[in-house]
Amino acid sequence: MKSEVLQKLARYCAYQERCVWEIQVKMESLAVLPEDQTPYQEWLEDNNYLNQERFAKLFVRSKFNQKSWGRNKIKFELKRLQVKDSLIQKALEELLDLPYEATLESMLKDKFQQVKDPNEWSKKQKCYQYAMRKGFEADLISMYMQQLK
């Protein structure tokens, strides 16, 4: 293992939480051959620079708190980052401690007020689509949509 590559990877992980896929992409940019990547990854894990579970839990909390993403969008993004399904399920449990439904409700109310459309059905449709793009579940959205006036 080259110490300068290891130092760059450690700095990269120390800056913010990373997943294994991001580390692999970084190693490719540093010209580390695929067959030589395992020792670097193991060193990062052994020295607590890289932890998939910690990354997944932080990702869930931050995307919900900062961007108001729902379960579906968070799950999709974690799969895109090649996080294991078991870790995704464990990380999504973080949403149980957060005001998930209250956030959806206030987001729908705010969007309903913002949409400039005289037709109420059309207005609700736009709010519904907005919440779907944010990754919330259809049945939950429908439940809160009935309360909009």
UniProtKB/TrEMBL annotation:
Principal place of residence: cytoplasm
Keyword Cytoplasm attached: yes
Signal peptide: none
Record-annotated membrane-spanning stretches: none
Top-level taxon: Bacteria
PANTHER family found in the cross-reference section: REGULATORY PROTEIN RECX FAMILY PROTEIN
Protein name: Regulatory protein RecX
